[in-house]
């Protein structure tokens, strides 16, 4: 089991709020207390709370309504679609964006990964957080989770082996590892694109103010009907254009 000390504080706070939602403290359709009151109830700082609330909003658990505040959603949002290609290749104009590892660890599922990777509560998920640089500047922050090893061994053993044997994981993304291990394996993917703010932690990582507008791309990659990778990509204002391929 992954210990709490191995998990990021914002993930722990995220789960505390999710637990309160599931316990009925904040039921679907209800409005959360104001930030000062909620921070006092949880015994945390307002910046830390704001980060967790942003994640909950991105994951579809909360909505922000002008004049009302943050409300708990009845159901997660519908998702879109995408062309399967590593983000560093999409962002690079002629040459792939550079990938720099910020974190390579193992985490227990959050609601986001439980929903999109169908991971049981006590599963251990590989988590990679990376900074992508293009045209000499930070262009994106990527967070990627792989399905539990036992799932990968069953539906995509080459991907499981590639993750274990990656020679330089600090310079590549998890999606690039998946793409490289998938010759002859059909992948399907979908994505959602939404507007948000960087927040304090991600602003510091990207060298931008916390209130910088950003585009959040959420993606899930599947082998057949089984999800093998879920990711969030945060692109701040001024990042290189992200091409989108559509077909019918």
UniProtKB/TrEMBL annotation:
Q: Does the keyword DNA-binding apply?
A: yes
Q: Which PANTHER family match?
A: MANNOSYL-D-GLYCERATE TRANSPORT/METABOLISM SYSTEM REPRESSOR MNGR-RELATED (PTHR44846), MANNOSYL-D-GLYCERATE TRANSPORT_METABOLISM SYSTEM REPRESSOR MNGR-RELATED (PTHR44846:SF1)
UniProt entry keywords in alphabetical sequence: DNA-binding, Transcription, Transcription regulation
Q: Know the name of this protein?
A: GntR family transcriptional regulator
SUPFAM superfamilies assigned:
Chorismate lyase-like (SSF64288), Winged helix' DNA-binding domain (SSF46785)
Would the keyword Nucleotidyltransferase turn up in this protein's UniProt record? no
List, for all copies, the residue spans of the domain called HTH gntR-type: 7-75
